[in-house]
Amino acid sequence: MRPPSSLFEPQANCIELAEGFFWLSAFVDTAPLLAQIDLIAAQAAFRHMQVSGGKHMSVAMTNCGPWGWTSSSSGYRYTHTDPLTDRPWPAMPDSFMALAQNAAATAGFENFEPDACLVNRYDSGAALGVHQDRDEQDLGQPIVSVSIGAAATFQVGGLKRSEPLRTLPLHDGDVLVWGGPSRLRFHGLKALKPMAGGLDTRHNLTFRKAK
Ligand code: MD6
Ligand code: FE
Fold this sequence. Notes:
It is a single chain. By secondary structure, the protein is mainly beta. It has a single domain, classed as Sandwich (Jelly Rolls), CATH 2.60.120.590. Helix content is 12%, strand content 31%. The strands form 3 sheets. A 7-stranded antiparallel β-sheet has the order 1-2-11-8-13-6-3, covered by helices on one side. The chain has a 4-stranded antiparallel β-sheet with strand order 7-12-9-10, with no helix packed on it. The protein is globular and about 45 Å long. The two termini are 17 Å apart. Bound molecules: N-[(3-hydroxypyridin-2-yl)carbonyl]glycine and fe (iii) ion. The site of N-[(3-hydroxypyridin-2-yl)carbonyl]glycine has 12 residues, from strand 8, strand 11, strand 12 and strand 13.
């Protein structure tokens, strides 16, 4: 939980956009993260998960850490093993854990202990529909989300789906931390625009305490 605000000194690149919702622009060098993502994907391949209704997501996903988020035609859940291989999800790299905890602490959330890291890959045209992250047991823990590669337009609303969405441009190295009263905000990602020069892939790491 956040300490009283008198003890909390936000850094210059850490902006609180709404209570509990922080944007850390250009917070991390992403080249080493991409190398780790390649190692993770070699063990647990990116896949387009099915959602209820039978369609497949345009975003490709995999996971690392003790718990992995999965979707199927019967709903969402966290599992210890990859349903494609029945093997445990790849371990969360120490550098991922350090980044997640460092970002959370920068936003005033000490003692963040993520046990799940969802890895998203967006190729041009991929989008993520507006949703809430509510499959986690302890909604008192924040979420840390890292943008890697191509720029994208993030949409963030309120606690009801009917509330208006605001847009936030996210760039390589940006980190969002959100918790407290913002933990259940609706949000999504607009379709990734095609870009020249092979710069049209975006990855995203989303760290959570699932259990
Ligand atoms: C993305 N992010 O940025 C998708 N969820 O590709 C999310 O769905 C998300 O960025 C919860 C908290 C932060 C996020
Ligand atoms: Fe989300």
